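Suppose you are handed a protein chain with no further information: no name, no annotation, nothing but its sequence. What can you learn? This example shows the usual starting point.
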Amino acid sequence: MACALRFRRHVRVAVLAVCLAVLAAPAGAANEAGDYVIGPQDVLFVTVFDQADLGGKYAVELDGTFSFPLIGRVTAGGGTIRDVEVELKTRLARGFFKNPQVTVAIDQYRSQRVFIVGEVRNAGTYVLTGDMTLIEALAKAGSTTSAAGDDVVVVHGKGADKPVLPDARAATDVVRLNLRDLQSGAADVRNIHLADGDTIYIPRAQLAYVFGQVKNPGSYPVQSDTTVLQLLSLAGGVMPKGATNRVNVVRVIEGAKREAKVKLTDIVKPGDTVVVPERFF
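A reasonable first move is to predict its three-dimensional structure. Written in structure tokens, the prediction is:
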């Protein structure tokens, strides 16, 4: 019993130590990405071991530099966190300190941004923070709407100052992903790299049409796996006089309209017109 109590005390002490270490870390260090490219208006948090007066927050100015005690202007724009660390260490070692220990973190991300447009709840411009993933960016925009299609399109804008749609860029600058794969956390799409000026575009789902004996005839968005039954549900369901065993679809094939009988489990295609006839008795 005493051993068990001592073990639980050790566990509590270890957990407390971890929590204190996290709280003591510099602001922004947890989200820092090693390959993040620093730009104007980013704020750096610099720590020089055993030299507390030199540490603190330093804002990168519009020309990509910041002023640091003893050594003057330091170029940060266009470089990574590691580049700035090396630069500070090298220059501080020139007659000021022997083997200075310097760490740099991003305190505030301000220089880079991405644009999120299309079928999201809060379209707009968002700050690109460190190693932000595509799914994290979409979460900032309030996720997708019910009218979103199957695809997510990322257009690499290469520092663009406004959204760039897919037809305005070469095919090599456009990445198309499946929205459901992304939402399920598939590794090959979850970790796609985002860069300054990228546009994340969520197209609207294509439509199919429902007429006849349903509660709310009209057009409805369909996904690649939407069935006839699901489409009828979107239309409010079949009326009591509807004949679900004689549902027809009008579909354009090679430019010609063709009508065929379908089952409730069949897949609906964009542009289809599904008709629910009235029962004979």
